[in-house]
């Protein structure tokens, strides 16, 4: 009874998006996915628990014993040393994860809302509106993404260096870059789905355009968005770091940002002061690596050909053949072999 009652609950948990792909993965594919999930989880937890984990504030220059001092090497008081401006490197590193996470959330959510909506309208109605939106998306693609982000950051921020002003400026500038990707992916799926039989049936029974678009087309055209989301999140980190490194990021008194810290650490490298640049750079690499591994692994698992190639016995399971615990899957009966034996 207990096993029977708990099995539906367990099956519901295993059907969750990430857990379902984790069960399907094997070998190197599973290792990549687990590594990416661990790195991403560490990044998210660090950002959420930043006030509890950081020993000092992101703009704090003094402690109980006085000023920290500039370019101090790692010690018991400052585990990762101090920066050129006298900030604690570890605290800036931890608080910088929160800034990066906020930028990712704002940029990705805004990109999905605008890009998916435009892609749905463009693919469903077609005509001159579709051609206009596609031309605009192609025009945005023609610009270098970082250059476009710099121009938009200057226009949006208006010279303001507040925390939310800088975050919104960076996030919205990244959003403009990501919108064409969601638009084109959603548009392609909508064009394919709107000619399906169930959509035609909905039109025949008198369903309106809004109901068909939201209830039938949209629900079946957004399955690949989680894959793009993870990859775009890593691109958002790199774009934010690039803006900060070039001097268009967030001021240190407003919020911590890894790209800005790298910019200020350039002159330290030639002087043998390595800790001000190594730790922020390592943080960027690890976060981007984790998000990229998750996105690439989910992309591979979404392709049945790559998934079956990775899992040797999975095609047998797909055919609905029960293989015993002591039975070799290679010699198990399949529908083809069963038919031949019957003949």
TrEMBL record:
Biased-composition ranges for Acidic residues?
Answer: 317-329
Where found? Cell membrane
> Does the entry feature the keyword Membrane, yes or no?
yes
Task: Specify where the region named Disordered lies, as residue ranges.
Answer: 317-343
Q: Which UniProt keywords apply?
A: Cell membrane, Membrane, Transmembrane, Transmembrane helix, Transport
Q: Where is the ABC transmembrane type-1 domain?
A: 97-295
Q: Where are the transmembrane segments?
A: 32-54, 100-121, 133-156, 162-183, 225-250, 273-295
Q: According to its UniProt record, where is this protein mainly located?
A: membrane
Instruction: Give the record's membrane topology.
Output: Multi-pass membrane protein
Q: What does the sequence similarity comment in the record state about its family?
A: Belongs to the binding-protein-dependent transport system permease family.
Q: What is this protein called?
A: ABC transporter permease
Species source reads Demequina litoralis
């Amino acid at each position: 009874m207990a096993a029977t009652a708990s099995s539906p609950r367990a099956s519901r948990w295993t059907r969750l998006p990430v857990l379902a792909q984790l069960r399907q993965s094997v070998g190197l594919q599973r290792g990549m996915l687990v590594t990416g999930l661990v790195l991403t989880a560490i990044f998210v937890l660090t950002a959420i628990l930043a006030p509890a984990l950081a020993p000092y504030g992101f703009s704090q220059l003094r402690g109980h014993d006085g000023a920290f001092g500039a370019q101090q090497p790692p010690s018991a008081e400052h585990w990762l040393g101090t920066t050129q401006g006298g900030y604690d490197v570890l605290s800036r590193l931890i608080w910088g994860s929160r800034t990066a996470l906020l930028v990712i959330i704002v940029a990705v959510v805004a990109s999905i809302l605008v890009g998916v909506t435009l892609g749905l309208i463009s693919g469903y109605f077609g005509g001159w509106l579709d051609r206009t939106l596609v031309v605009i998306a192609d025009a945005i693609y023609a610009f270098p993404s970082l250059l476009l982000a710099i121009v938009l950051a200057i226009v949006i921020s208006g010279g303001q260096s507040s925390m939310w002003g800088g975050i919104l400026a960076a996030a919205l500038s990244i959003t403009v870059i990501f919108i064409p990707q969601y638009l084109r992916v959603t548009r392609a799926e909508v064009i394919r789905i709107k000619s399906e039989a169930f959509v035609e049936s909905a039109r025949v029974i008198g369903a309106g355009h809004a109901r068909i678009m939201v209830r039938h087309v949209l629900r079946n055209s957004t399955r690949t968005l989680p894959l793009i989301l993870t990859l775009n999140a890593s691109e958002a980190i790199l774009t934010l770091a690039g803006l900060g490194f070039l001097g268009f990021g967030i001021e240190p008194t407003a919020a911590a940002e890894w790209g800005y810290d790298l910019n200020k650490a350039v002159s330290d490298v030639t002087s043998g002061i390595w800790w001000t640049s190594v730790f922020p750079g390592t943080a960027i690499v690890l976060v981007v690596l984790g998000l990229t591994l998750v996105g690439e692994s989910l992309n591979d698992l979404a392709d049945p050909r790559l998934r079956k190639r990775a899992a040797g016995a999975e095609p047998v399971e797909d055919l609905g053949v029960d293989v015993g615990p002591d039975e070799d899957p290679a010699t198990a009966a399949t529908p083809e072999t069963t038919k031949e034996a019957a003949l």
